[in-house]
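Protein Entry — a single chain follows
Next Lines — sequence and tokenised fold
***
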Amino acid sequence: MGVPWVLGLVLSSFVPVRPARAAAVGEATAGTSERTWVTHEILPGETYEDIGARYGVSKKEILRWNAKRLGPKKWLIAGKKLRIYARRVPPAPVLSTYVVRKGDTYAKIAAKFGMREEALRRLNRRSKGRGKKLYVGQTLRVYVQPEPPQPPADAGPLPEFSVPAGSYAHGKPNRGRLIGGVQVTSNDDFTVRNPDRAYATSHAALVLRRAMADFRRRSGYRGTVLVADISKRGGGRLRPHRSHQTGRDIDIRLPKLEGIPAGKYPSMDEIDWVATWHMVAAFVDTGEVEYIFLDYRRQRRLYRAARRLGVSEDRLRQVMQYPRGPKATQGIVRHSKGHTIHMHVRIKCAEDAPSCVSY
């Protein structure tokens, strides 16, 4: 996919050095759910969240596999090696150097490279300035994430999907109706929780099918994806929701890490945030999504997973509200209280639905 985003930096400010010392043992590849043991060397400032997101595992699992290595205090010490039974093994980040320019701050540089500010400071605490005040021309060490994985070149185009025509939205999402609703049913890509609450417009049903097929191809995710409420057959109030009245609002459970029981309410560490990013990206790339609602605290995890994949700053500014604050009006992914284990996808009005109102 063209030139990696990192090359967009001023070349005099960025010099590749070497891959990070995080050795993988086995042949699992990014995006698959095959398990393999890997040896991970802890990087400066790295957290359990960082390691778990990288390999698709939870903090509890890391602690269980490495109880003797970590000791009773469970501190993560840079240079120490961990054994991880990884669900995915992405390419290792590259240790590089960056020359500070006018206007740079630790926070800005960390965001540029998908690092946490504290991790950047720790990585450079022995450099001149001792991790405190920056000056123009100062050389910092940074970790650069690899380019985002793309669908295999031989994957071919997505399948052609067809849904019954003639279903459209009338009115606003929170005060409207669904005319001739199309019932969405389970298929190879997702499972519908309750078909009686899964009626959509023709346009929304088609976007859902395409996006979920694309998500499976991008991510290689093999777990169950649950589609919850959309609308009633004729639309109108669908309790307990205020919206979901016109067949354009779709609730989708966030993909969980392999091995998490189906009925368990997952913690943030038990959600597969890399797979979640691929799902968000698949919907956004249809060009037919108005908003995706997700609790702001969850957005932080999603944002950091995307940065670890090497997603560019420009792309994240387009997609994410985070880190601009939960009241910011930029980004397709927006804060909505209560959306902690599911995302709420709102599909745009179809061109042939003149009585559909966005808001």
